[in-house]
Amino acid sequence: MAQFSLATGLRQSNVSYLRWDQVDLERGFAWIHPDQSKSGKAINVPLNNDALSVLQEVQGDDVHYCFVYQGKPVERTSTKAWHAALKRAGIENFRWHDLRPYMGKLACSINAAQAYKSCRSLAVGHRMRWYCGTLTLRVII
Questions:
Q1: CA 70, CA 92: separation in Å to the nearest integer?
Q2: pTM of the prediction?
Q3: Do 11 and 45 form a contact (C-beta atoms < 8 A)?
Q4: Averages of pLDDT over each 10 residues, the chain, 141 residues
């Protein structure tokens, strides 16, 4: 799930409750319905190779949800397992939500302004006007 969140920039709740009927592996897209997004607007999520790879790996684990544990959607990620994984990786003071801005920085570093405008703001569901301002772009890169 963390790898998928990092690859897409989606919120933990959107990843936790992502259903297979919201994913098109062939076209490489997923979508979040308006009632599932914080902004109340639908989010079209382009799936890069990392995201597709994660989905292909979990395909068949459940009929309805993409990410499950013991047959149910993973509701919480700040669990003992998450903290143990962070400790093993030598990471301190890190929250699941921290994966979202990192995805944007990663997209920027790949193809600076163009990737930032098209991938970052759309993938994480933010308005372009706010996220793609010159000052913001300079600060994040």
A1: 28
A2: 0.67
A3: no
A4: 84 91 95 91 91 95 93 79 81 71 55 47 46 37 35
